[in-house]
Amino acid sequence: MKQPQARPTASRRRRSDRKSQLATIAAELFCERGYYTVGLSEIATEAGITGPAIYKHFRNKQAILAHAAAEISGAIDTVLADVPSDGAPWERIDRVVRDLCALVVERRHGVQLYQWERRYLDEPEHARFTATITALVARVADLLGEARTHLPAADRTTLAAAACSAIASLSTHRTQISPRAASAGLRSLALGVLATGLPPRLTGAVTEPPHPGELGEFVTRRERLLVSALRPFRERGFHAVTMDDIGAAAGIGGSSVYRHFPSKADLLAAVYYRAAERLAVATSTAIEGAREPGEALRGLVDAYVGYAYGDSDLAAVYLSEYGNLPADDRRALRKVQREHVEQWVRLVVAVREDTHAASARLAVHAALNIVHDLSMARRRHADADQLKHLVFAALAA
Q1: In the prediction, which pLDDT does 216 show?
Q2: In terms of DSSP H, where are the helices of the chain?
Q3: Is residue 122 scored above 70 in pLDDT?
Q4: Residue pLDDT, tens place only, 285-316
Q5: Are residues 164 and 286 in the same domain?
Q6: 263-283 mean pLDDT
Q7: What are the distances in angstroms from CA 253 to CA 223, 259, 267, 269, 383?
Q8: Which of 1, 96, 189, 359 could form a disulfide with 166 if both were Cys (CB 3.0 to 4.6 A apart)?
């Protein structure tokens, strides 16, 4: 005879709740400041406990990160498990979209773990977290296939990934918006993306982001260091890469590295200013001759997708390592980033005169996040023309 399972005691539930609370707080801090810059004492302070008390729940910071990722994975698994097995396909898709929107709104400041901070998970946890996200995209793609039976399989995956990215975009910015408005706006954006069509993929296959080629012999040492730092920063994160690593990749050894950059933070700042300058030149050139807002917006989309798709290592570092910049550079570059977003918002409002700035801002962040996630993925399922089409689908939702 099967013995009934004992119910968890109140003290066990409190310990479990405290563990979840700590993981949630930690995830928010990791996403805001970066995994390496957040100490256990900061997590404890935010939770209202002493530093040593945190060890009653976690052995170290790595364990907290793993638990935070597991909780997000578990929440996604619950969304997938709750998908009805029957009913009209679009109704089932809408159920998934609504549940995902609710999840992102509830965990807004920690969901962004999926984008950059998961680099610091141990390999098994990283694999599990990635598998959950892959399963989510695959399930949405399958449902989309039921709703749009003639849609090619590759397009289903691309649209599903873009819709999930649009929903997750709420975690990438701090725009003030009520939970109800955020849920409604994200739902509209995701469904609009899932309903759109895609132009044929020109390359015809999944590709990987290009690896920087060999630099010519006349390139300066400073330039070699800047270029050589990008891929390590992108894949391993700023704190996991040393100046010696960068020097070795550039073929420059020893103290010679420091003749060009006094510190790794100075090198990172140089990368950021380069990215900001390239983006500013590309976008201003693209829109300066425009005769009306629609033409300017098309030029801006072309320029931004070209920038992110064509130089994804530079763009990825620009997006992921902001918290590791020196304070003065961080403030200056934050202003540049905000002005760039507002340029998009002004054009969207000018093109869609019935759209409020708040709604336009939500759509712009969704469109930008689609570009970031799909162009910087390890395996690209969309080419540049398809990305542009997805951007306009988000902006029109």
Answers
A1: 63
A2: 10-33, 40-47, 61-81, 89-106, 123-147, 153-168, 179-195, 221-236, 243-250, 264-287, 293-310, 312-320, 327-351, 357-375, 384-396
A3: yes
A4: 999 989 999 999 999 999 999 999 989 999 99
A5: no
A6: 94
A7: 15, 11, 16, 21, 38
A8: 189
Q: What is the Cα–Cα distance from 167 to 121, expressed in whole angstroms?
A: 23
How wide is the angle at C-alpha 193 spanned by C-alphas 171 and 376, nearest 5°? 55
Same domain, 57 and 167: yes
Residue 202 maps to a domain: no
User: What is the rounded average pLDDT of the residues 165-180?
Assistant: 96
Which of 380, 329, 373 is closest to 116 using CA atoms?
A: 373
> Could you tell me the CATH number of the domain that includes residue 154?
1.10.357.10
Residues 106 and 58 in one domain: yes
Residue that is last in its domain, among 195, 212, 244: 195
Query: By residue range, what is the domain housing residue 156?
Result: 15-195
| 43 lies in the same domain as 147 | yes
pLDDT at 9 exceeding the cut of 50: no
Question: What is the C-alpha separation between 368 and 132, in angstroms, rounded?
Answer: 23
**Statement to judge: residues 22 and 161 lie in one domain:** yes
Strand partners, 380: 207
The answer to whether residues 112 and 261 belong to one domain is no
Asked if 372 and 239 sit in the same domain, the reply is: yes
**323 band by pLDDT with thresholds 50, 70 and 90:** confident
Band of pLDDT at residue 213, cut at 50, 70 and 90: low
CB atoms within 10 A of CB 170: 27
CB 171 within 8 A of CB 31: yes
**Contacts for 228 with CB less than 8 Å, ≥ 6 apart:** 246, 249, 250
